[in-house]
Write a structure and sequence with these properties.
It is built from 9 helices and 12 strands. The chain is of the alpha+beta class. The strands form 3 sheets. The protein has a 5-stranded antiparallel β-sheet with strand order 4-3-7-6-5, with helices on both faces. It has a 5-stranded mixed β-sheet with strand order 9-10-8-11-12, sandwiched between helices. Strands 1-2 form a two-stranded antiparallel sheet.
């Protein structure tokens, strides 16, 4: 290698010999910390929790992130103390999983951690076995806080299944739940009915007071439906000013009518959200689920009954004619459909529009 000498003339400079550092910055290989120390430094600075067990479930090492996550001083919790920080609902399952790790099977679990103030944090643990010939079985693992990640997923799932204005179940989730209630191939393992509610003259609220006032009325109606529903009922907003209440266990006309009247009375209470006291009313169509139903056919049957209620003067409850003895789609004495028609087909002249897709009545 040729460089300028002290007098400015070029000269040969031999490369450094073995064991001689090329420059003060490079350092000799012997000056570097031992590999074990470097790994300890790396673990101490890692932005995730690291831990290990030399034997059984007792931890013999945790890094600072692990200690901070568990709300403990650096280097703790070790031994079996770390298990005391787990939510009791998750501890037993995790302990069983760790026994599997000691048997040679890596595992991954998401569990709740009880932090200092009693709050819960969701953490994900990944644990792999470590064994030495003739020695006890242990493991090493990593843990990360996934609370925010989980909350984001839960928010996304909630937004996909709930109406953003009222917080009620939306049409998509309603359809999924109706499929569950109807059972495979529409066998209807347990009786249930639905109510389809449509606010009367709701267009006048929007026209006279604006859509913001209309939204406040819809939120109030949703709250009233929740209060008048039973604990096992499902309340959904179908679209616009249409709502659906699913009534598990209601398998006869009298039960559907009684539930409808209860909701009708609650909705009809005076409302002062639009500047002056104004009465609300709604019309309700009810239908009993019958074998062979689909969510669409069941909603159509309720919609036809709703049309009848609207035509009969509003503010009333009507049950689908197919749900009455001797009418199409009637459930027989052993839960079999009647012989005079098919589920979901209108029993009166005229086809209703699709629920949730009509204009305001």
């Amino acid at each position: 290698m040729v460089v300028d000498g002290p007098d400015g003339r070029g000269g040969e400079v031999s490369p450094p010999g073995p064991g001689v550092p090329a420059s003060p910055d490079e350092g000799a290989p012997g000056d570097r910390p031992p590999r074990e120390n470097r790994l300890n430094l790396l673990a101490s600075a890692a932005p995730t929790g690291l831990f290990s067990s030399a034997a059984g479930l007792r931890l013999d090492y945790v890094n600072p992130y692990f200690s901070a996550l568990f709300g403990a001083p650096d280097g703790e919790p070790t031994g079996l103390d770390w298990l005391d920080h787990l939510d009791p609902r998750d501890r037993e399952d995790l302990e069983r999983a760790l026994v599997d790790v000691l048997g040679g099977a890596p595992v991954e679990r998401t569990v709740r951690l009880v932090v200092e103030d009693g709050a819960r944090r969701w953490v994900r643990l990944r644990v792999v076995p470590v064994t030495a010939p003739g020695g006890p079985a242990g493991f090493v693992g990593a843990v990360e806080d996934v609370t925010e990640q989980r909350a984001a997923l839960e928010r996304a799932a909630y937004q996909a299944s709930h109406d953003p204005l009222t917080g009620l179940v939306n049409r998509r989730m309603l359809t999924a739940r109706l499929k569950e209630y109807l059972g495979s191939s529409g066998t209807v393992p347990d009786p249930f009915a639905i109510l389809l509610l449509d606010l009367d003259r709701f267009k006048e609220v929007n026209d006279d007071h604006g859509h913001e006032a209309g939204d406040r009325v819809l939120v109030e109606v949703a709250a009233r439906l929740r209060r008048s529903a039973r604990g096992l009922d499902l309340v959904a907003r179908l679209a616009g000013d249409e709502f659906v209440v699913v009534l598990p266990g209601v398998g006869d006309v009298a039960g559907a009518e009684e539930a409808g009247r209860r909701h009708l009375d609650r909705i009809s209470a005076p409302c002062t959200l639009i500047g002056a006291e104004r009465g609300l009313s709604c019309s309700i169509g009810a239908a009993l689920a019958v074998p062979g139903d689909t969510p669409e056919s069941l909603l159509r049957a309720a919609d036809l009954a709703l049309l009848t209620a609207k035509d009969g003067g509003r503010a009333t409850v009507r049950v689908s004619e197919r749900s009455r003895p001797g009418q199409p789609g009637r459930r027989g004495p052993r839960g079999q459909p009647g012989q005079s028609g098919q589920p979901g087909q209108p029993s009166q002249p005229g086809q209703p529009s699709q629920p949730g897709q009509r204009g305001v009545r």
